Amino acid sequence: MPVLGLGTWQLTGDECTNSVIMALELGYRHIDTAEGYGNHEQVRAGIEKSGVKREELFITSKVSHSNLRRADVLAACDKALKELRTDYLDLYLVHWPNSSIPMEETLGAMSELVDAGKVRDIGVSNFTISHMEEAARVSPKPISVNQVEYHAYLNQEDLLAKCNELGVVLTAYSPLARGELLNDAVLEGIAAAHGKTVAQIALRWLVQKGVVVIPKARSRKHLSDNMNMFDFELTDEEMARIDAIETTKRLINPPWAEFDRS
Ligand SMILES: NC(=O)c1ccc[n+]([C@@H]2O[C@H](COP(=O)([O-])OP(=O)(O)OC[C@H]3O[C@@H](n4cnc5c(N)ncnc54)[C@H](OP(=O)(O)O)[C@@H]3O)[C@@H](O)[C@H]2O)c1
């Protein structure tokens, strides 16, 4: 799984297709989309126009929280495959937990998709430590990934430790805090010391923790900047300074979230 992917939430129409084309031209090989983003077809158009072969790509999609019954999971996956015009997804995630549907049923259906060759790996998103423990207990197949909000303003050390313990890769969504951390004084100071941008420091901090990042970007400049964070290293002291930023800002918290389940 490439450590850097392209986020596509709120990318629609030509803007989505163009971001995918530019990202693939720049060397991105990992794309994050979802049933709920309504952009599978625009992502597919970008992939097709880029000429990059399917087998070179890592494509993640997600099934919506309202579709977690067995039959709905299977149907949502077939629809995603059709819209993306591909035979398989590299990773299929449960987008949000939904305690009104037994997790065993949902993860059982996800497992069937693996057996059918439609999905290479399964995972979850927006799962708390307690959801993770339940998933690990009831899933017939290993949970490969938990994709959660993670950035310098929402440190997720405890969840990361649980993922590491369970052998689950943590993917950070909204790794740039949707742009909110771009004027942060601590990050600016560290960026100046390395001749890098604040965005590159914010992403590098996550990657050095062993976390996968999926920033969304529309411009070639941003897409390219986000790739150029592999040629330098933050010191332990710089990592600790970012860890110590006290802001706790959860940006994504829809009514159906279950973050209060500890
Ligand atoms: N699983 C979930 O529930 C969930 C929830 C939220 C997000 N996600 C995934 O995570 C992805 C990323 O999160 P996000 O879209 O919320 O926010 P984000 O990636 O943290 O931030 C995106 C914002 O940062 C800007 N940006 C990108 N690169 C930059 C750079 N190098 N310098 C300065 N600004 C830069 C973008 O501007 P431009 O667009 O103008 O370039 C955009 O305004 C989503 O697209 C989606 O795939 C998943």
Can you describe this structure in just a few lines?
The protein is α/β, with parallel strands linked by helices. The protein has 10 helices and 8 strands.
Descriptive overview:
- This protein is an alpha/beta fold.
- It has one domain: NADP-dependent oxidoreductase domain (TIM Barrel, Alpha-Beta Barrel), CATH 3.20.20.
- The chain has 10 helices and 8 strands.
- Strands 1-2-3-4-5-6-7-8 form an 8-stranded parallel beta sheet.
- Helix 5 (129-138) runs parallel beside helix 6 (157-166).
- The protein starts with 5 loop residues before the first strand and ends in a 19-residue tail after the last helix.
- The model has no long low-confidence stretch (mean pLDDT 97).
- The structure holds NADP nicotinamide-adenine-dinucleotide phosphate.
- NADP nicotinamide-adenine-dinucleotide phosphate binds next to helix 9.
> How are helices and strands ordered from N to C?
EHEHEHEHEHEHEHHEHH
CATH architecture label: Alpha-Beta Barrel
% residues in beta strands: 5-15%
Could you tell me the CATH topology label.
Answer: TIM Barrel
Secondary structure category: alpha/beta
| Main sheet: strands, sense, barrel | 8 strands, parallel
* Gyration radius over CA: 18 Å
Number of strands: 8
In CATH, what is the homologous superfamily?
NADP-dependent oxidoreductase domain
Oligomer: single chain
The percent range for helix content is 40-55%
- Side by side, the strands of the main sheet go 1-2-3-4-5-6-7-8
